[in-house]
Amino acid sequence: MVPMILNEFPNLDWLKKQAEQGFINRKSWSGNVLPCRGWPNVIINTSTRKAFRDNIRGPLYIFTNLKGESTLEAGNQRVTIKEDFFYVTNHDQYYTLDINQPSPVETFNIHFGEYFTDQVLSSLSKTGEGLLENSFENPGTRIEFHNKLYHRDVSIQQLIYGIRNQTSPSSCWLEEKLYELMVNLLRKETSLLRIQASLPATKTSTRKEILKRLILVTDYIHEHLHEDLSLEQLAGVGCLSKFHFLRLFKIAFDKTPAQFVNELRIRRGEQLIKNTRLEIHEIASELGFRNPSSFSRMFFQHAGVYPTQFRRAVV
Questions:
Q1: How many other β-carbons are positioned within 10 Å of the β-carbon of residue 205?
Q2: In terms of pTM, does the model score above 0.70?
Q3: 1-198 under CATH 2.60.120.810, yes or no
Q4: Does CATH place domain 260-314 in 1.10.10.60?
């Protein structure tokens, strides 16, 4: 299916009607005939200060911003999607996207078409790669991804900016890149399912619920990284007792919540040092450190150099 790149959000009423009817008329936003029913592959790369897209029945969807941030509601969750992150929603899941910022927000939201998604999953389940082998309970059925904030790692970053910066990409090239993104998503989901399997509970339903609660906590950490987060506060987000939460978190992520938070802060600090002109003390304050020396010591412990030395090396 030929992917489309849009530089504006489609009319909301039209989109809702098409989504509810499953694109039965096979008409795209531009009026062109789609090759089959169901959601097509669409990338929305637009720049806007304000947009409110409420209660839309969507496809498998990646929400991300190359500049600025947006708020998303899906699956009874409300998350802020900052520049370095993306969020995944599932086919037939309703979402509300809200952009309300003083400066333009550049979106790079990706709809994975139904036919395309099914084809990719089918092809991967039949390979010797083992990507999906024994990872999902019902082979051949549509996969439900965990609703989760993900950090845009190097591979995702390269794929997204590669698509965004390509002038007049061919349909073949664009489909290949979307395929790579899908494979990357599946690897992340497979990793989550391995974590789920490692959790100490007899029932599968219990392990699923524990992982869901731990994901709520990691999403909360991403959104409140600048705050002084307490163990009790994080356990409360996951609706778990404090030390039960601590034990489960360490089993799931092979590190304590404090270690998890500190690693994220240092990673964010590296990005701010590389990509902004903020002073080190300003970066330390933005990351929630009480003083610059605390940030410098922790940065050295993780990176082997002090922030000022790191900046000289990368600038």
A1: 9
A2: yes
A3: yes
A4: yes
